[in-house]
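Subject: Sanity check before I submit

Could someone independently write out the structure tokens for this chain? I want to compare against mine line by line before I put it in a report. The sequence has 324 residues.
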Amino acid sequence: MIKRRLFSAGLLAAPFAKPAFAQTWQPSGPIKMVVAYPAGGPTDVIARIVAADISGPLGQQVVVENISGGAGAIGTRNVAKAKPDGQTITFGNNQTHGNNMFMLKEPGYDAVKDFAPLAGAGAFEHVFVVRNDLPAKNIQDVIALAKAKPGELNYGSTGIGSGSHLSTELFMARTGTKMTHVPYRGAPPLVQDLVGGRIDLSNSTLPSVLAQIKAGQIRAVALGSPKRNPHLPEVATLEEQVVKGANAASWAAFFAPAGTPQPILDRLSAEILKSLNKPETVEKIDKLGFTVEPRDPAQFKPYQAQEIATWVQIAKDAGIQPGE
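---
Independent answer below. Compare away.
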């Protein structure tokens, strides 16, 4: 009878063991947070802000490692194949964890099946920027130049399948224009060439060009968003300039390799979400021009699915074939 009571007590206690484990998981060493783009770009800067903030609570340094190339596929593939033990995570976006699935013939990973979302971070607005000596003060001037000499204007993007690529292709489809695509390995080299006058324009994420716009190194001619941005209140939207149906925003989120134990996912997710909800973190990121909208994994999964469907439609509307 006594043995039976002890056995029953053990059964009652068992369900509480898992949450206790979740609370006590600690990383065994520094955590590597992969960014699949060069250092200095907006994705990299945001990753570093959050990495620094969660290092203390996790009791280990969270070190950002830049593994760029292949339209973000090289670094992302590296994480997909990493040991699922919580020691390697990534900060990705709609290109690495969405568009590469239908824009690259062999990305080397499945953006959904090979990853477990930790937290959605928010979205990048897009802004059309031109080199200072391009004779265009607004988006209608750009359209006029592009129509006068089809294919002569060139536009930069952060790689094939990136938001800056697909959104510009959508813009051309909506406006009946033709420009030449110049893909880069990330935002820093693109912005450098734009400032240097080696490319004509770009439909870039706002954080990647905001400092250069404010410094007068390049000129903003339109925002690809429903309303004006407080960082650039003088810049009109595409719709205000009579360009309809060409808005696009690029999201960003944190991921771990699929197969990572749930208690580890829960701990990492909790610390990242705490950071993204801190006013001081939001203030730092907001200054870059990124809109912080934290989503937990349950909220992010349907959002990611919907966003993938949206970008597939954008590629279809722009006439871009999968695998191009």
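---
OP: Matches mine. For the report I'm noting this point. Residues 1-22 have pLDDT under 50 and may be disordered.
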